Amino acid sequence: MKKDRLYFLTFIAITIVFLFVAIIASQYFIKLSANQLIEAQVESSKREANEIAKMLDFQLESEISKEKIIENLQQIIDKTDNNSWFISVFDWGGKEVCNPDKTKVGQLVNSDQSLLLSLNEKNNSDNLYDLLTHANINATSEIIYIVPLKKTDLIVAANVQIKSINNQLKALKINFHLIFLIMGLTVIVLSFFLVRIIGSAYEKELEQQNSSLTTEVVNLSKLNSDLFSYKEKVAISDIKNTSDDSQDKEKKRLLTYIRNELVPILIDDIAYVYTENSITFVVSFDGNKSISNASLDEVFTQLNPSLFFRANRQFIISISAIDKILKYGNSQLKIVLHTKTTEDIIISKNKAAEFKQWLNM
């Protein structure tokens, strides 16, 4: 149940993050794409208006009458596509002279010229989207660009159908939203399954680690139990050996030095022996430290191997001094003594098997 709830919350979190990013990104990309589309159409209309204006100027300079020029132009643009962008001509009085729709010839121009003024003021395409989407939607068309003809009262105009442009922009929005919807569903579903796959793999790894840890804990518990049992065996053996005549022959003391003073130490009082800077130190259970002239190997030969263990090149430890055994690193053991040591006592991987066998003696 907890895993299912976690996966569900992950799914909700991914969905919320994607929706937040998609809302911001879609608005940006819609506006950017719309501006590029409208800019291309505006520039095309401007070029067309300029070309027609140049043609009419050339005809006027060739002394062709204005009436004939208007008649020819009307024939050219008559019934051309005026669903979105088209060219018209009007006079200074605002009366239509040429228009793809003949019914509008002679009528006043139906434009408040707000879009034209805005475009001229901005002089760039960055705000074309905002200008067109906020234009008068009740207007049939708006003039976006004008070119006055020299020595006449005629003006060539580039026009845009507001409703047609708004329909294009709506279609663009729908396409973008559809793309983001499909992409969002794909990303969310794939992310959800990836989270489940990664989560399952991580759970398996944790289970393996927990299983391994449990095994190690059991092994350490057994090892510490063996330590306790061995200490009891040693205690019982000491009691028996006390009444045994052969016990008198065993070495009871170890000769050490404190400064220039000879100090014999009972072997039963030794907690551990260690070497540092080629000097052998003998530490008793009460923490007192003395020095032995013998090397660590020589000292070990004088000790009872059932009571003392050579942990490593630096330490010899007494069974009675061991407090607990801990796992350390890769299959190594760390020995904690009742008496504080100068350094950690680490039994290597190779030595650990010998130590376990020593405890089971």
Q: How would you explain this protein's 3D organization?
A:
The structure is a single chain. The chain has 7 helices and 14 strands. It has a 5-stranded antiparallel β-sheet. Strands 2-1-4-3 form a 4-stranded antiparallel β-sheet. The protein has a 3-stranded antiparallel β-sheet with strand order 12-13-14. The protein is rod-shaped and about 140 Å long. The chain has 2 domains: 2-182, 2-Layer Sandwich (Beta-Lactamase), CATH 3.30.450; 249-359, OB fold (Dihydrolipoamide Acetyltransferase, E2P). α1 (2-61) packs antiparallel against α5. It has 361 residues and is an alpha+beta fold.
What would the average pLDDT be, to the nearest integer?
A: 80
End-to-end C-alpha gap: 50 Å
Query: Strand order, biggest sheet?
Result: 9-8-7-11-10
The proportion of residues in beta strands is 15-25%
The biggest sheet amounts to: 5 strands, antiparallel
> How many structural domains?
2
- Given as residue ranges, the uncertain stretches (5+ residues, pLDDT < 50) are 243-249
Summarize the structure.
The chain has 361 residues and is α+β, with helices and mostly antiparallel strands.
Features:
single chain, 361 residues, alpha+beta, Beta-Lactamase, OB fold (Dihydrolipoamide Acetyltransferase, E2P), four-stranded antiparallel β-sheet, 14 strands, 51% helix, rod-shaped
Layout: helices, strands, pairs:
Layout: H1 2-61, H2 66-77, E1 85-91, E2 96-98, H3 114-122, H4 128-133, E3 141-148, E4 154-161, H5 162-242, E5 253-258, E6 261-266, E7 270-276, E8 279-284, E9 289-292, H6 296-301, E10 308-310, E11 315-318, E12 322-328, E13 332-337, E14 345-347, H7 349-359
Antiparallel strand pairs: 1-2, 1-4, 3-4, 5-6, 7-8, 7-11, 8-9, 10-11, 12-13, 13-14
